[in-house]
Amino acid sequence: MSRALLARNGRRALPLIYGGRRGTDTLSGVHLAARRFIVDMSYSAHFMDFKGSSIASSMKKLVVTKLSPNFREAVSTQTVAVPTPGDADLLVRNRFVGINASDINYSAGRYDPSVKPPFDAGFEGIGEVVGLGLSASSRYTVGDTVAYFGSGAFAECTVVPAKEAVPVPAVKPEFLTLLVSGATAYIALKRLGDLAKGETVLVTAAAGGTGQFAVQFAKQAGCHVIGTCSTNEKAGFLKSIGCDRPINYTAEDLAKTLKKEYPQGIDVVYESVGGSVLELAVNSLANKGRLIVIGFISGYQSASGIPPFKGGTLPVKLLQKSASIRGFFLPHFLGDYREAMSSMIQMFAKGQLVCEVDFGDLAEEGKFVGLDAVFRAVDYMYAGRNLGKVVVEVAPPSVSNSKL
Ligand SMILES: NC(=O)c1ccc[n+]([C@@H]2O[C@H](COP(=O)([O-])OP(=O)(O)OC[C@H]3O[C@@H](n4cnc5c(N)ncnc54)[C@H](OP(=O)(O)O)[C@@H]3O)[C@@H](O)[C@H]2O)c1
């Protein structure tokens, strides 16, 4: 039997009263106000949220039913029972979920080839706690607002281990941009960039989800920042967040521009595109340059997932410049995650960090609203149309919770 504590109203049950929680969360700096609340230990599978609005017994979620990098082929919408959280878990009603380039790597089974479909899609969400287990209740209560980086986010509700949840002061989409995109830029540059004041940093896909943060963190480190993008609108946005030299590669030749304007080479590259862009970036490195492989999106839609790369002379190029190529994969750096989130949330609160969100307002069929809009949002990103982090609004604000 589940040990979940499910808050309910309107039914006869033995109430337990918990109270007096105080203090400040060390991760987010969120002040946890003293409060008293009532939980019900009847282990019911059907439950209601803390203000009494009923949670439906069924919900929609996106499930990978066939491995493919074509998201629409791989993923289908299913209606299932709302899951019951385990002892150390939260049940989160998702308000917003984030789209990541790797959603199609995941649907192609490239993360863990031993995992076979069906499995749940989506990496990150933000919303409100609507149910929780007994152990989880030592730290959280129904109505808390949390964000999380974990699997199964493309759903109306997701079970999240309480230890992986990030308390947030409100369900703002900006916080969602930090969970994967911001954390990747923050940790990769800190741990692998070795940035020094006055160095030159090149960020590819600079106006996207993670690129926007790499630009800002490199600028904060006192570097000269170059950012690539595909439109003048994105170039204008890059200027607005401090990028010294936005390059719209559809309007000017990237290789010629780098050669002409940066003859000494680039000290650090935050590289997300792969293929010919990676080759150009390697060729553009300065002596002792560092190239961080963040991704290779130009190959993700292919069968192999890997864009062609002529690497035969790579050892020579690296040796001649004492340069290095370093790979970065966020799940390998979870030891740095809490500090990164805490720091970024504080920067955002102080107005020191722009977290640009793209809800697809200008997309052909309009804003990304409802779980099924995830399909359109993935297409939109792969058409290179996004400016900032692509976010889908899964559910409207809860009328019972002013923090939403
Ligand atoms: N290593 C990690 O742990 C980690 C974590 C998060 C993200 N990433 C990587 O970071 C990169 C960006 O991911 P994201 O989720 O933040 O996406 P994003 O940057 O928000 O969106 C992708 C952008 O890539 C650019 N792009 C360049 N060539 C493209 C191509 N052939 N097809 C589609 N887009 C192309 C487009 O911008 P322009 O049109 O302006 O060029 C597009 O807007 C990806 O490589 C992803 O795998 C890695």
UniProtKB/TrEMBL annotation:
Enoyl reductase (ER) domain location: 70-392
InterPro entries named in the record: ADH-like_C, ADH-like_N, ER, GroES-like_sf, NAD(P)-bd_dom_sf, Quin_OxRdtase/zeta-crystal_CS, Zn-ADH-like_protein
Keyword presence, Transmembrane helix: no
Domain of life of the source: Eukaryota
Enzyme type, top EC level: oxidoreductase
Keywords, sorted A to Z: Oxidoreductase
GO cellular component: mitochondrion
GO MF annotations in UniProt: 15-oxoprostaglandin 13-reductase [NAD(P)+] activity; zinc ion binding
CDD domains with a match to the protein in the record: Mgc45594_like
Enzyme Commission number(s): 1.3.1.48
Pfam families: ADH_N, ADH_zinc_N
Keyword Oxidoreductase tagged: yes
Membership in a protein family: Belongs to the zinc-containing alcohol dehydrogenase family. Quinone oxidoreductase subfamily.
Protein name per Swiss-Prot or TrEMBL: 15-oxoprostaglandin 13-reductase
UniProt source species: Oreochromis aureus
Gene (name only): ZADH2
